[in-house]
Design brief:
By secondary structure, the protein is an alpha/beta fold. It is built from 9 helices and 8 strands. The strands form 2 sheets. A 6-stranded parallel β-sheet has the order 5-2-1-6-7-8, sandwiched between helices.
């Protein structure tokens, strides 16, 4: 798990802009969903071509948070990534041809096939029968054509999204940014997110809290969801 905090200069900037650090004093649990993004073998398995080692350090935190949210009546959604393996490569050639090293490109494509073991939720994650599972094929699960996540969220009456998983600064941030621009209230759960370095993790959270949503720990999230609303 990343042991970093948002820098004081960023905190001061946020306070100067809106006179408060956290955006949300209370969130309705029944209208809240936890998005657990890409906590699957392709990113968590030691030695996998797209491994994010720090992802193994957030497993327990995500499991605890998911348990608490189910108790409060919130929805838990597991979002995994997959791309179709075509005869000439992949259905996302722009990514695989330009952002994946030559020596691991084919392994990465194969590990992210919809039927490959790498696409499955990591074996240590505690998935409940009441949870929802969604497959995406781009960084953001909310851009058109990436997944059916928006339809699911709207159908469930979800207004608040808690983002967990990996990588903080790629799929998690991309999904969170799009969610805010679609008028969801979004919280990045800082101790349930993992990137390839502390600096990347912190930079993502610092950008997010300034422009896109809130940043809280899992404990802070549970406290906000457990409060009685001010009527």
């Amino acid at each position: 798990m990343h042991n970093v905090e948002i820098r004081q200069e960023i905190v001061d900037r946020v306070l100067a802009r809106r006179r408060r650090y956290h955006l949300f004093d209370w969130l309705d649990p029944s209208k809240t969903a936890l998005l657990v993004i890409d906590m699957q073998s392709a990113f968590v398995e030691p030695g996998s071509p797209a491994e994010v080692p720090a992802a193994r350090g957030i497993i327990a935190n995500i499991n605890r948070l998911a348990t608490e949210l189910r108790r409060l009546g919130s929805t838990v959604i597991w979002v995994t990534h997959a791309n179709i393996h075509t005869r000439t490569g992949s259905d996302w050639d722009m990514f695989f041809s330009n952002f994946v090293a030559d020596e691991i490109r084919q392994r990465t494509i194969e590990s992210l096939s919809p039927t490959a073991p790498g696409q499955k939720v990591w074996r240590e994650m505690r998935v409940d029968a009441t949870d929802v599972q969604v497959m995406k094929n781009r960084y953001s699960a909310l851009i058109p054509g990436s997944s059916n996540l928006e339809r699911i969220l709207r159908g469930l009456g979800i207004e608040n999204l808690l983002v967990a998983g990996t990588k903080t600064n790629v799929c998690c941030e991309a999904t969170g940014r799009d969610a805010m621009m679609m008028d969801f209230r979004v919280v990045m759960v800082s101790d349930c997110l993992a990137a390839l370095s502390d600096d990347e993790h912190r930079a993502s959270l610092e950008t997010f809290i300034q422009q896109f949503g809130d940043v809280m720990t899992a404990g802070e999230v549970v406290a906000v969801l457990s409060k009685m609303p001010n009527r």
